[in-house]
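Known limitations

Files may contain more than one protein. Parsers should not assume a single record per file. Below, a two-record file is shown to illustrate correct handling: read the sequence, read the token line, then continue until end of file.
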Amino acid sequence: MAHVTFEAGSATLFRPGTSDAEIEASALKAIRRRNTLVRFWQIAILVFVIGMWELSSNMNWIDPFFYSSPSGVLERLYEWATEGTTEGSLWYNLWVTMEEALIGFFAGSITGVFVGIGLGRNRFLSDIFSVYIKAINSIPRVVLAPIFIMIMGLGLPSKVALAFIMVFFVVFANAFQGVREADRNMIANARILGASDWQVTRTVVIPSAMSWIFASLHVSFGFAIIGAIVGEFVGARFGIGQLISIAKGTFDAAGMFAAILLVMVVTLVAEYIMTLIENRLAKWRPQQHLDTQ
């Protein structure tokens, strides 16, 4: 019987006797071709959007005062990088926001994982605390920024607290659900072999929940950045959120877009690093097959 594989949606037939190495090489070639095509369209869409933005601004199809232009945004970034901002060095303001986000991210992630796994493994405690967790989670967390600033002041603690809250509930929910979705047959087999509760949690439950946990970590750093920036936007002396607030007050559209661009770049770099860490820690997972749709 002829071997059959699929390349980018079209069937490719192999002669009888085709070696596994040839089939694998063909599959890898198809994957590389698809990845190249995806990258091409990603870049093409980005170039088109930026080009249309620049053209629309130059031709006055949109009001440059409100929408600025890509060239204006880059000029503002260059000005901030070389001459500084009204609130000091751009890099210092970026570091302030990153410090707040990173502390909130790590504290919220670690706490969320431990609490999620702990309550997921203890139904009695989860039943007790579930109503309180749901009540707190129902509050739009960004509205807590004025409360934290009123209690903790304009410094680092209030921004970290908001970033912590933004991250905690995302990670907690995924860790909790990941524990609840653990394979019951594997847990039962481990108990039959004499594993203790801690051994079951460490060797079966936590590995099963890792995909859920990593999925939450991918988005939670963005939430940490949001928490830090919202806190700075409400009240701060330094930070990217403060730069956005000043740009808003002076109708500096280029400054607002420049600050947003900085946040996007930082978040994408963090996402890339998170993916590398996930791939390194989760080598046991089966590789995803090429989706030809």
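...continuing to the second record:
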Amino acid sequence: MKVLANDGISKSGILALEKGGFEVITTKVAQEQVANFVNENNVSVVLVRSATKVRKDIIDACPGLKIIGRGGVGMDNIDVDYAKSKGIHVINTPASSSESVAELVFAHLFSGVRFLHDSNRNMPLEGDTNFDGLKKAYANGIELRGKTLGIVGIGRIGQATAKMALGLGMKVIAADSFIPQVDIKVEFFDGQSITTTIASQSLESLFKEADFITLHVPAQDGYIIGEKELAIMKDGVGIVNCARGGVIDEVALVKALDSGKVLFAGLDVFENEPTPEMAILMNHKISLTPHIGAATGEAQDRIGTELASQIISLLS
């Protein structure tokens, strides 16, 4: 059987699939050509990440398709229910990238509280002529320790983020309409651990209480953070979104950044991917990454081997 990994797959995943008797194709096929390629090459399994979309048109056009796999958590680029109604297995890897995404959240948090994103833009331009001026501009840093981190969505990635926050000495609060409370176990290098329980609270109370807010939710019909929500947040709040574009009203966010209501934002995802708005890209108060939450070697190895294991289990 043939597997098309259209958005790529780790070497470990390829080796595992080949060992299981599958042929792996890593040719990047344009979105509009996916159905033709699948049919012409008798592909049984299509694996995607966030770039390729597997909608009803492809599902209808590819009767030989047996599995659609998503390397990651969210499956909003796949018509999951429709695929299942046609007898196609739909799989993903919800646990594989949690730590990688959580670490990127803290990369943005550290960047924001110490102005690294702006400093790294200006030091090459002015470091030799305005060193003292830049030193003064970035002199009002903030420590994360002792501050309150509000986590919207306390699933696997939210929990991984909570562990890192607790390790830094932050207070962690959470809002999740599906998880009333969760036990967070923070494990240390020497085998010791501590466990604490985080109870979910209302979004409104989280927005009012948190010094920093990080979003870990699937794609939504509307905004989770808009003008109304920004208005009730603390002055000088920091906001990070490494989840999905479209959960923050970017126009309202830029307005809040410009007014000083929001101190900084860290964005890995955007409303208009892959062409984010210029007002976002050029704002010196936003730390920016191009949707790379799961893009670590370790996460991709875990994703590849987990997908391979599921495929072999389903089709062998």
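Parsers that stop after the first record will miss the second one. For reference, the second record is described as follows. The first helix runs from residue 11 to 19.
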